Amino acid sequence: IKVAIETNIFFFQIIAYILSFLPIPDRKEASLVNQLWYSAAQESLRQESSILSLAETLSKSLRVLDLSSCVSLGNRSVQAIASHLLLLTVLRLAWCKELTDWGLLGIEESQEEREHVAKKDAGPKFSRNFGNLGFFQPPPQDLEQEDQILIDFAKHTVQEKRQASLSALTHLQELDLTACGNLTDRSIAKVIRFPELRRLSLSLMPNITDNSLLAVARHCRSLEHLSLNHCVNLTDKGFIEAAGSLPRLQHLILSGCNQLTTWTLKAIGQECQQLKSLDVSMCSRISMADVEHFQSYFPLQSQASIQSRFVGGADLSISL
């Protein structure tokens, strides 16, 4: 009996952990499998309410907060963090795919946005499932009640604080938004304005454009490490205008930015004289000759390096 109980607990924890990586509508769908899955789905739904509670509890002491890969982390949690954890210097939200512009801006979604999300999530995601085949009766509506708990808690912790924007975290020195693919210029250009920020990652964010790059460059003058790999909408024009505002930049990652050409390298070489490393891997419009020409902007004793794998069909790593 003891072994059976321990086995069930183990499987419960595994299922809850797996479900925590799914969006809330998918977890509701999974809860129809059986009672074990239903309980695991309930447990996974408590994640965001726990973060909301944590934000208020640790407000006076927390400096570093790493929530990377909390893929179901929502806008309310980010707004709670911005309301309570004002002394944060490091915030990592990589792969938090549920985040949208509204969360960073500290405002409620528009009615049009809510209706779009509701329409997208309406109905089952699969044509047939265990629940609608009749193998299991649908569970009671506790999952819906769990959603209401999150909403009520958010009203208490966020709305009473007037839904703080991420820009309230004025002491940030590192911010990681890697793969937060729902974010656009709408929030990045308005919120990422931190005078003390040294490290910023906006990698794998296909919706940002030169507008975000220019805003970041103008309002984050202390930047030393900037990661923009696979931001496919960035262009030479953006870097030509932004490079002069990044005098302290030491490390720049641009791999997979396929619109960039030698003009970007020229702007960076002329303006970013403290640069130590540059990654232009898989930038299809930058050639080996462009990379070699880039060397001329730096003194021979410089220890900077260029990573340019697959540029011109070759692997070229040059120490400057």
TrEMBL record:
It holds the Pfam family LRR_6. Gene3D superfamilies: Ribonuclease Inhibitor. InterPro entries: F-box_LRR-repeat, Leu-rich_rpt, Leu-rich_rpt_Cys-con_subtyp, LRR_dom_sf. This is Leucine rich repeat containing 29. It comes from Anolis carolinensis (Green anole). The gene is LOC100557310.
